[in-house]
C-alpha cells in the first residue's frame, strides 16, 4: 500500500502546472464536454503508465539525457506554435465535432503528451523502486486524475468567461517557456 500512496502523492504534485494539465484545460475549453474528456484522460493514463515501466526503461537506454532534453525542448516549442494555429474544420467536420469524438481525441492527445513526461518517468522509477507494478500504476493514475479532472470541470466554467484565443496565447507562452527550460536548464 505504501507504493500506492507514495505514487499517488508524487504524481499529483508533479502534475501541478504540467503540460498535460494545460492540455486538459485546452480540451475543456475546446469541447466543453467534461465527462468524455475525463474518461479519455483516465484511459490514456492507464495505457501510458501501464506501458511506462517496459517502454520507458527501454527508451532511456537508446537516447542519452542530452539528446532527450533537445527532443523534449523542440517538442514543447512545436506545441507552442501549434497552439497559435487556429482550428480549421475539415469538410467532414462541418458539425464542429472532432473526427475521433471528444473521448478519442482526448485519449490520443493525452497519451502522446504523456510520452517522456516527468510523470511517466516517475512511474518507471517508482515501479522499479517498489517492485509493485499494479500498486504503482494505480497510484500514478489516481495522482493524474486528482490533478487533471478538477481542471477539466473548473476549466470549462472559466473558459466560458475567457476567450479561447487568450487561452491559446497563454498556453503557447507556457509551452515556449517549458521548451526553453528543457533545453537550457542545467542537467
Shape label = globular
Biggest pleated sheet: none
Look at the structure and give the mean pLDDT. 79
Helical content band: over 70%
Secondary-structure element order, N to C: HHHHHHHH
Radius of gyration: 17 Å
> Structural class, from helix and strand content?
mainly alpha
Task: Please report which band the strand proportion falls in: under 5%, 5-15%, 15-25%, 25-35%, 35-45% or over 45%.
Answer: under 5%
Terminal Cα span = 32 Å
Number of helices: 8
Number of beta strands: 0
Q: Unreliable segments (pLDDT under 50, ≥5 consecutive)?
A: 87-95
Main location: membrane
GO cellular component, one term: membrane
Transmembrane segments: 38-60, 67-85, 132-154, 166-185
Family: Belongs to the GDT1 family.
Walk me through what this model shows.
The structure is a single chain. With 187 residues, this protein is mainly alpha-helical. The chain has a domain at 2-64 and 102-162. The chain is 82% helix and 0% strand. The protein contains eight helices and no strands. It has helices at residues 2-15, 19-31, 34-62, 65-84, 101-114, 118-130, 133-161, 164-184. The radius of gyration is 17 Å and the shape is globular. The two termini are 32 Å apart. Mean pLDDT is 79; it is low at 87-95.
In short:
The chain has helices at residues 2-15, 19-31, 34-62, 65-84, 101-114, 118-130, 133-161, 164-184. The protein is mostly helical. Residues 87-95 have low confidence and may be disordered.
List the helices and strands and how they pair.
Layout: H1 2-15, H2 19-31, H3 34-62, H4 65-84, H5 101-114, H6 118-130, H7 133-161, H8 164-184
Helix pairs in contact: 1-6, 1-7, 2-3, 2-5, 2-7, 2-8, 3-5, 3-6, 3-7, 4-8, 6-7
Amino acid at each position: 500500500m505504501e507504493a500506492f500512496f507514495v505514487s499517488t502523492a508524487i504524481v499529483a504534485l508533479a502534475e501541478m502546472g504540467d503540460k498535460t494539465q494545460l492540455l486538459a484545460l485546452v480540451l475543456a475549453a475546446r469541447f466543453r464536454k467534461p465527462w468524455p474528456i475525463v474518461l479519455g484522460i483516465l484511459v490514456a493514463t492507464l495505457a501510458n503508465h501501464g506501458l511506462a515501466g517496459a517502454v520507458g526503461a527501454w527508451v532511456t537506454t537508446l537516447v542519452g539525457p542530452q539528446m532527450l532534453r533537445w527532443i523534449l525542448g523542440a517538442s514543447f516549442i512545436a506545441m507552442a506554435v501549434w497552439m497559435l494555429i487556429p482550428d480549421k474544420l475539415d469538410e467532414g467536420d462541418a458539425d464542429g465535432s472532432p473526427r475521433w469524438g471528444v473521448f478519442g481525441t482526448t485519449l490520443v492527445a493525452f497519451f502522446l503528451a504523456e510520452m517522456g513526461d516527468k510523470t511517466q518517468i516517475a512511474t518507471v522509477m517508482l515501479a522499479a523502486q517498489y517492485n509493485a507494478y499494479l500498486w504503482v500504476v494505480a497510484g500514478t493514475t489516481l495522482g493524474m486524475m486528482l490533478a487533471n479532472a478538477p481542471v477539466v470541470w473548473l476549466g470549462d466554467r472559466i473558459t466560458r468567461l475567457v476567450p479561447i484565443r487568450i487561452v491559446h496565447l497563454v498556453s503557447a507562452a507556457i509551452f515556449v517557456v517549458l521548451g526553453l527550460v528543457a533545453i537550457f536548464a542545467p542537467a
